[in-house]
Amino acid sequence: MQGIDVSKWQGDVDFARVAADGIELVYIRAGVGADYVDPRFRANAAGARQNGMKTGFYHFVTADTAEEARRQARFFVSILSGQVSDGRLVMDLGAPASIGRARFNEVAQAFLEETEQVSGRETAVYTDLSRARDLFDEETARGRVLWVAEYGVEEPSGSGVWPDWAGFQYTQRGRVSGIDTYVDRDVFREEILSGRTEPLPESERETEYTVARGDTLWKIAGRFGTTPEAVAERNGITDPNRIYEGQRLQIPLGERAVCTYVVKKGDTLSGIAKSLGTTVSVLAGLNMIRNPDRIRTGQMLEYML
User: Fold this and answer.
1) CB atoms within 10 A of CB 219
2) What span, in angstroms and rounded, lies between the C-alpha atoms of 7 and 19?
3) Rounded-to-integer distance, Cα 51 and Cα 44, Å
4) How far apart are the first and last CA of the chain?
5) What is d(CA 78, CA 204) in angstroms, rounded to the nearest whole number?
6) Which residues pair with 159 in a beta bridge?
7) What is the per-residue pLDDT across 196-251, written as a single tens digit (0 to 9) for each?
8) How many angstroms separate the CA atoms of 156 and 145, rounded?
9) Alpha helix positions (H), the chain
10) Distance between CA atoms of residues 126 and 243, nearest Å
11) CB 28 within 8 A of CB 58
12) Positive or negative CA dihedral for 271, 277, 282, 286?
């Protein structure tokens, strides 16, 4: 199957022209981390399905602990409420290799297992060839298929613990009718499909948050684009002035404020992340940066308050 994967960075897509250009399966970025929903994901999903194409969803995971990975998995499934996914639900893990292979796989397995348990659906892993070979272990790969990125070749090379591939992303600079920007081009095999056609379970779009020292309900609500009243109601809080450090809250999500930063000469992604109070993984996920060491002067980056 000829396919593409899209996010907000492709803008307003004319899916009728995309379908006419031979695309059969569209993978759509649903979100990033534990609280960012791609603003185009619902429109992309609706447009693809209305024009007869199959759809699938992926999530960029910024976690570097198993607990955080499970939290992000629950968020991923919550934002897919009511969506039809022909494809397996896909993890794109942004954790750096520096955390070590054992911990990397602990995080990966936590996200995949939680996604499978909460959604009742099969999962797949998206990664580039070097990470597939060097970081993933047999336990993470077992029962899950691989969608691998390798550019400039006709077919992917051997990918370590996976005997074969189900998806092959062969360029980031593809062209398809109906999309004005470059777009990732893919070849997919039947193994990427879930075999399920019913919508995912209906659920509230929310995330979890652990109260830190100095937090107030108003401060927390503002961070997640919601109201103190909504957070209090969701968590059965009768006195909004009484929350305590370490308390776990379910946060109904509103619309987060998204800001921009223009890369200056001498900037590094790690330095920018530190100055903005975020992480390299989050910035990379929001801005579709595959190589954190490659940013350019004048490049516009999005980040969330």
Assistant:
1) 12
2) 17
3) 11
4) 39
5) 6
6) 162
7) 889 998 877 788 889 999 999 988 888 777 888 989 999 999 988 889 999 999 88
8) 14
9) 15-20, 41-50, 66-79, 101-119, 129-134, 138-141, 217-223, 228-235, 269-276, 280-286
10) 39
11) yes
12) negative
* Per-residue pLDDT tens digits for 108-158: 999 999 999 999 999 999 999 999 999 999 999 999 999 999 999 999 988
Tokens of 167: 């998806």
Token pair belonging to 157: 């090379």
Instruction: Check if the beta carbon of residue 6 is closer than 8 Å to that of residue 47.
Output: no
- Residue found under tokens 């370590």: 160
Write out the two tokens for 195: 């075999």
Q: How far is CA 200 from CA 188, 194, 211, 257, in A?
A: 22, 12, 30, 28
DSSP reduced 3-state for 207: strand
| Pairwise CA distance, residues 223 & 66, whole Å | 23
Whole-angstrom CA distances from 179 to 10, 55, 184, 264, 302 are 7, 17, 11, 29, 21
Task: Write down the residue that tokens 């968590």 correspond to.
Answer: 235
Largest CA distance in the chain: 62
Cα–Cα distance measured from residue 301 to residue 287, given in angstroms and rounded to the nearest whole number: 6
Alpha-carbon Rg for the chain in angstroms = 19
Residue 183's Cα: distance from chain center in Å? 17
Q: Look up the pTM and report it.
A: 0.84
CA distance 117 to 201: 12
Instruction: Let me know if 254 is exposed, middle or buried by CB neighbors in 10 A (0-12, 13-18, 19+).
Output: middle
